[in-house]
Amino acid sequence: MRLLLLLSSLVFITTSALEQPEVLVYTVATEKTDGLKRLLASAETFNINVNVLALGEEWRGGDTRVEQGGGQKIRLLREALEKHKDKKDTIVLFVDAYDVVFTSDLNTILSRFFEHFEDKKVLFGAEPFCWPDQSLSTEYPLVDFGKRYLNSGLFMGYVSQIYEIVSFQEVADNDDDQLYYTHIYLDEKLRRDLAIGLDSMSRIFQNLNGVVDDVELQFDDNGDALAYNAAYNTHPAIIHGNGPSKKYLNYLTNYLAKRWSSATGCFNCGDKSRLDLSEKSEEDLPLITVSFVISKPIPFVEEVLKALSEVEYPKSRIALYVFNNQKFNIKTVLDFVSEFGKEYHTKKIINGDEAISERDARNEALDFAERVSSDYLVFLDADVIITDKKVFHSLIEYSVNYDIGIVGPFINQPGKLFSNFWGAIASNGYYARSEDYMAIVHRKRKGYFNVPFLTSLLLLNKEKISAMKGAFSYSSQIDADMSFCKFARDKGHFMYVDNEHLVGFLIINEDFIENVKEGRYHPEMYEIFTNRELFERRYLHPKYKETLESEEFVQPCPDVYDIPLMSERYAKEMIEEMEAYGQWSNGKNQDNRLAGGYENVPTRDIHMNQINYERHWLYFLDEFVRPMQEKVFIGYFHKPVESHMMFVVRYKPTEQASLRPHHDASTYSIDIALNKLGKDYEGGGVRYVRYNCTVPADEVGYGMMFPGRLTHLHEGLPTTEGTRYILVSFLNP
Fold first, then answer.
1. Which of 260, 200, 186, 180 has its CA nearest to residue 224?
2. pLDDT, tens digit, for every residue of 23-75?
3. Which of 263, 385, 461, 720 has the fewest C-beta atoms under 10 angstroms from its C-beta?
4. Contact partners, residue 381, CB within 8 Å, separation at least 6
5. Whole-number Cα distances in Å, 91 to 21, 23, 156, 407, 597
6. Is the same domain home to 546 and 595?
């Protein structure tokens, strides 16, 4: 019995397969665009063979994005069907090339056609707009439910009927194809004789224009993504991003056609079957151009360039293009070029030339890359810190293995949602949050995603270097990077952000711009809140973390601890910032800066609040001094720290050389040496009177931490030569 059932099943399957009609799938594409490659990739996923007509030929059908046209498609399809026109059981499926994706196989498409449209010989997709001739809307027959108007981007039917339609009358290449099909559909006799219908409920064909709110992503039990039409409770098999809905199609196709699974993630991420650069010798690596651009005030450019110099891609295979229009960074760029310039394959440096616009410079980078025959061009903006030294290798491998021409790594501001890509664009052309933005930023969804805006760090392959010429000047009403992306969107060049690996982070520059405008001598000193990690790299003493983790602290006098806090650079810049401000007190008891107007133990000093640094230094004390205090003065906790007296003192023989014995008005104090004994000054030091113990206090960046009032009466010993600077803070008065 089981054998008979098995044989019966086999007979049924074989018979069904034999009865399945031949399906001819056609599209028209004169160029192999990103959209066409996407269509063909989705077709390959479902074993669909697409016949591409006119590839490599001249397009004479007009710019259908902005005007009527497309008649050339009708002529080409007619010519292709000529040899098939007499076949009785052959189905033709036509899809537009650049904005369509398959989500199901042909068996699914055919079964829905036969089940839901059994009385039809020809089926067109439907949409909510009567286009291109709105006056024809009243001539359209009513439908029971769903969309009423014909769309010519997706249709199918028996070859004899389709051939009759495309041969009905002569059509010029620049005539409108949708209008042609509309007139045939609106002719009641032709509609009846040819049995033409519309897929009004998107059972097979989904045209997105005007209905993007109805169509959403779903994932089935296997994790595969489906397009779901919530209005009609259908799962269309072919999706068409007609009109302005192309950006939404791009979003959907990040997941559809088995591109990404909720169960297994990205389908082909990590694939290196086409290219694995680790297998190539250094001299065989592709030649790349790196375009480094400083077009606005950015903090920590020195660290950015250091990170660039440490990228593990041989400089001999990099053509370097640098554009800087910021006076603040001229010396930094000069120092970088002086140190590393000779190592690069070739270079072009535009440093401090304000006559050249950012747009022109970025466009010139494209020309430069082409002139030097680069295989790839990397745009690197000055607000990107690279942490992955293999990032250039990865981007090249992504481009080749995923067959994508423009790709950039996901980069964001540390701890923030702000990143280098947009998931969607609002109607005004600016940022809108896509449904998946948070999942991509938090890397709950990993892979490579087609996005409408990408900036800061991105790679172009050779084809795109040529294709994107002039993109930065495409729209002068918006920023250069937005113009580039608008050009890409309008011309059909896909941009992908890849978040498989973290490769760096974005520098925050908003506060920095204001500090530069205010004339700060070292504006990076003010970045402790906005760019904490980079601030620590530059300004925290190299031994701070090691000391904090240890159990032993240097104690030169009883309850006086010597701890590393500030880097030598921080100390130097603090002195320079104070001297640039220049308004030192006169060292007298009368002091209008204080609430009572009187200073009991006056010094020549500048308070932190005078250079608008009080908030920043308080934060430094709370984040870096307080943890040290809690380890050495066990059992005392005070968070956050408080201080009303934070200042830099200047000692010199011709002004004030020393300070008489005194108690500080604090629970504990920090005195930090800012310059070097024997190099910058002679003499100095601190004597703790009660213990008759003297500390040289001469190691730059080290602070003496000691109790304030009651126990630690102390004096500043005379500075005999030069100028001595110390930074004093009275904590928790």
1. 260
2. 999 999 999 999 999 999 999 999 999 999 999 999 998 877 667 778 999 99
3. 263
4. 292, 293, 295, 455, 456, 457
5. 7, 5, 7, 39, 95
6. yes
Q: Has residue 271 been placed in a domain?
A: no
Per-residue pLDDT tens for 557-616?
A: 999 999 999 999 999 999 999 999 999 998 888 778 887 777 778 899 999 999 999 999
Is residue 11 pLDDT above 90, yes or no? no
Polymer length in residues for the chain? 733
> Residue 130: which CATH number?
3.90.550.10
Distance CA(408)–CA(458), nearest Å, equals 4
Smallest CA-to-CA distance from 628 within 664, 668, 660, 659 is with: 668
| CA gap 473, 276 in Å, rounded | 35
Contacts of 487 (CB under 8 A, 6+ apart): 468, 470, 471, 474, 475, 493
- Name residue, tokens 């970045």: 527
For the chain, the domain total comes to 3
Residue 484's domain comprises 277-506
Nearest Cα to 498, choosing from 432, 445, 551? Answer: 445
- Both 222 and 336 in a single domain? no
- Is the model's pLDDT at 17 over the cut of 60? no
Closest to 402 (Cα-Cα) out of 495, 489, 317, 486: 495
Q: What is the average pLDDT across 423-448? A: 96
Q: Assess whether 182 and 208 both reside in one domain.
A: yes
Q: Confirm if 297 and 322 have CB atoms less than 8 A apart.
A: no
